[in-house]
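Preliminary data (for renewal application), 2-acetamido-2-deoxy-beta-D-glucopyranose complex.
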Amino acid sequence: MSLSDRLLAFGWPIPLAVLLLLQLGTGSGAIVTDHDRVVTCYISTWAVYRTGTASYNLDSFDATLCTHAIYAFAGLDEQKNAIKSLDAWQDLKDNYGKGGYERLVSMRASNPHLKVLLAIGGWNEGSEKYSNLAADPERRQAFVKNALEFIKQYGFDGLDLDWEYPTQRGGKPVDRENFVALVRELSQAFRKSNLLLTSAIGAGKDTIDAAYDVKTLSKYLDFLHIMSYDYNGSWNGRIGPNAPLTSKDLLNVEYSIEHLLELGAPASKLVMGLPFYGRTFVSTVAKARLGDEANTEGFPGPATKENGFMGYNEVCDELKRNPDDWTLAWDTAAAEMVATKSNGTASQVIVYDNTRSIANKVRFAVRQKLAGLMVWSVDTDDFNGLCAPEMDTYVDFGDRDKVALAIPAPVNGKYPLLKTISNAILVAQDELTQENVIPSEPDEVPAPGGTGSGPSGAGSKLVGPVSGAVVGMLLFVVTAIRYV
Ligand SMILES: *[C@@H]1O[C@H](CO)[C@@H](O)[C@H](O)[C@H]1NC(C)=O
Ligand SMILES: *[C@@H]1O[C@H](CO)[C@@H](O)[C@H](O)[C@H]1NC(C)=O
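Predicted structure:
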């Protein structure tokens, strides 16, 4: 059933319905204040050092597309048991520095919905020094006091812990308990000051089981940011999807979320990660596909310059420049794109998330009633708006016999992936509402044991006295306007 059908079914007068539909139809897409999910945006602030159009300045940040911005990363000062800037010139104002902390925080003034957090840790900080800090009650106490002061000093709304990962990479088994102690003590201090405390959480089953007392952590953290990506990469020596929505094994996004829910994380605190980058592979198999052998290096993107990694902006730019070099395939199980460039003896492969991937993943998060979505990271979206719009974002949505969705126009311009998140939240919520509404309609008998077998004409019964012609006209007007 379409939106107009529903408005009419609820007895809205036609002029009002038309007005509402016009409004919905003409905007340049949804923003975060149009829904109540969180959209948490990590910014890898070193992206400012990338070359050419890939250099990401904080001035490019679009606060209308994020509920939470996370400045990544600060580090740990082990002598002082305190947070320290890892790039004083970019982060601070001292010595004519660029004052990144304060510039991001100041964006709240014109965007009252926005919360700005500072992340401490990240991959390059390693695990061991956080392991040592968490193991010592006196050092923990000092860190809590100093961290609180630091967060307040720069006006952040909270702290995001990015210890990658307790018990791993040089950590100890006892990190699991010590991390809980650190989080509990931090949260007591932060809650008193009305500040947020969140944490990035590894997504592999082995990491989750070893590193996190999920249920207890969930009590003290405001949000858990699930790093549901990096499931496969060139390090495997095999071509695999970076962030498969589903797979035959346990290494997929759906399993990670379901596992965390089973372990006692409330859906209302889970924020599911979306990668704005792909993983790259080089294979000696011509026309290589997922599952084929590859070398353990991959190849780099021109701006991010890291073997095995390519930002979405770099991928879409390459596809735009050299469209004939690449064969594109959609992998249904993973809900990811596979781009292959082959020369008869070898292949380069990129597995990445496009708008269709993002929409499908958002749909899963909405169906699981999660708090929302997180992205790593906004600086590899097509933030300049240089690439062509993708037209197939919602092709997997809606059992067309059950629901009639108002599908947004293709996103264009800056931040196509980030824009898709808010748009897809609304579409996924609409789809869910319609699916839940239709079986309970009085004049429809649900099929035994199922919800999905109503006759496809069921929607028109609800229109009542309004003739199908009027509805048709309305729909025509709306559709026409949406594509202006
Ligand atoms: C992803 O990598 C893991 C091993 O790290 C492997 O078990 C799994 O099969 C891979 N997935 C795919 C689809 O290749
Ligand atoms: C074929 O592609 C591989 C991988 O990109 C590359 O290393 C190799 O030089 C190419 N060979 C030829 C003959 O172009």
